[in-house]
Amino acid sequence: MNQGTVVELQQQVEQQQEQALIIAAQQGDRGAYRQLYERYLGQVFALALRLTGNNSFAEDATQEVFIQLWQSLHRFSGDSKFSTWLHRVTANVTVSYMRRQKNWLQRTFGLESANEADLVATNVSATNELDQYIQRLPERARLVFVLHAVEGYRHEEISQMTSMAVGSSKAQFHRAKKLLREWMSHD
Amino acid sequence: MTKPNFEQNLEQQLQALPQEQQPQRDLWQGIEHALDHRAELSDGEQANANVLPSNITSKSSRPLQSKVWLASAASIVMVAMLAWFGGQQYSHYQMRIESEQFIATLSDNYLSQKDMLLVQFKGKPAFTDNWQDQLQELEDAAKAIHEALQHDPRNPTLLKMLKSIYQQQLQLIERVHVPRLAQI
């Protein structure tokens, strides 16, 4: 048996295990759900961290993703890959979390401090060079860049997720790239 | 960096981005707590939805039918009210967690800025002798606000006060170490 076949077999076994975990979790098995959580925590947190640019917010958003996922797991039909579906859930929940957080900050501290979330966006320790630049981007530019360039969403989809016009999404993407080019040239 | 070079470099870096990153603290405990809380709320709804005796579904007489109808309507209203109340409770719980997270972030930011300033001005002469006493007084005030926030974490006045106290502390450290003329 060659190495390629062994790898394929391993992947098949892993897929079957994952399928079994999803079905068990859909039927209310908390242990199976925890195993899914452990399997996908790193991916969910990485995306939440890129979107929020802040450790505490990302941890909070990750918890919210897994709380909401438990409620909506029955909607996963298996038509797409679970990881693809989970990424979309993560992006939607995190964007909505950020909107809520910002609204609350605006209500509490007024317009002057409405960008508190941006203010604390530097409070992270990214090791990857591009991640460090992404975290320096202004919030809207960061959101669009991560969703479009990293996650592969179209501007029309981003527009639906973030309630920003398609044109604004494109403009924010160009803004992000301009800033990145500037920083990458200087640093 | 030329545009083609940048595009190529960016593409390479995008491909090399790590797919996973681990949080610094255990998140499962909070998730499990929230799931248990939700489960308790739904159990409560379920229990209240099952208050009707089983014989009430009998079709023997009209008065009984109207009782069935009334009881069903009442149970629907009760379930709707409980669902609404449950939702309110859950969202209140979520908001409380978010608020506590925000307070923690605010405090962490303040502490790191304060540490940075203290390191920056270490060994430099201060313009008043009792600045550390003043700092301690503000520290005590912040502590008292923190305690009050534990009971009411979303109180906007308390949050504003805490933020203001933190700002005053940072300003105090700066002002006593930087000559007034240098600040202008």
Would you kindly provide a written description of the structure presented here, covering whatever features stand out?
The complex is a heterodimer of chains A (187) and B (184). Chain A is mainly alpha-helical. Chain A folds into 2 domains: 31-125, Rna Polymerase Sigma Factor, Chain: A; 126-187, Arc Repressor Mutant, subunit A (Orthogonal Bundle). Chain A has helices at residues 3-26, 30-52, 55-72, 82-109, 116-119, 129-136, 139-150, 155-162, 166-186. The longest helix of chain A is centred in the middle third of the chain and has 28 residues, at 82-109. Chain A starts with a helix and ends with a helix. The relative contact order of chain A is 0.09. With 184 residues, chain B is an all-alpha fold. Chain B has helices at residues 3-15, 28-49, 62-120, 131-151, 156-177, 180-183. In chain B, α3 (62-120) packs parallel to α5 (156-177) and α4 packs antiparallel against α5 (156-177). The longest helix of chain B is centred in the middle third of the chain and has 59 residues, at 62-120. The model of chain B is unreliable at 49-62 (pLDDT under 50). Chains A and B meet through α2, α3, α4, α6 and α9 of A and α1, α2, α3 and α5 of B.
